[in-house]
Amino acid sequence: MHSTSAAVAGAVTFLWLGMVLAISFLEAPLKFRAPGVTIPIGLGIGRMVFRALNLAEAVLAVAVVAAVATGGPSAAVVTLTAIAVAVLAGQLGVVRPRLNRRSDAVLAGEDPALHRSRAHLYYVALEVVKVLALLALGCVVLAG
């Protein structure tokens, strides 16, 4: 990749990675351990935080794609970019709507233990895949 495109792609990729790690793997699990945070309050906070994170991710994904597209990327860079963007698209288009329906039900008073949803597990698994893809992408573009 051209040096400017690689620098931009690397910087934006690592910014995206840092945001995902901070929110998905620190904020999300810790908020439910804070004193006085009930499941409905935690869900309400989580929905707002993840809505903002996902919007930021979409913007960062566009920036990464643009930087990669203008830089004469290798096949590895194209593949890793495609994986990260596809995972985000899957999270936003498939998993998040299921999570929203589930949190709507809990916020409406349904007992959270009544019907367990696997959507959260799918989202976390996709987050792990996305983190690995972003880490590899950032390393590959900066290694040149």
Automatic annotation (TrEMBL):
<protein>
    <recommendedName>
        <fullName>Transmembrane protein</fullName>
    </recommendedName>
</protein>
<feature type="transmembrane region" description="Helical">
    <location>
        <begin position="6"/>
        <end position="28"/>
    </location>
</feature>
<keyword id="KW-0812">Transmembrane</keyword>
<feature type="transmembrane region" description="Helical">
    <location>
        <begin position="121"/>
        <end position="143"/>
    </location>
</feature>
<keyword id="KW-1133">Transmembrane helix</keyword>
<keyword id="KW-0472">Membrane</keyword>
<feature type="transmembrane region" description="Helical">
    <location>
        <begin position="49"/>
        <end position="69"/>
    </location>
</feature>
<feature type="transmembrane region" description="Helical">
    <location>
        <begin position="75"/>
        <end position="95"/>
    </location>
</feature>
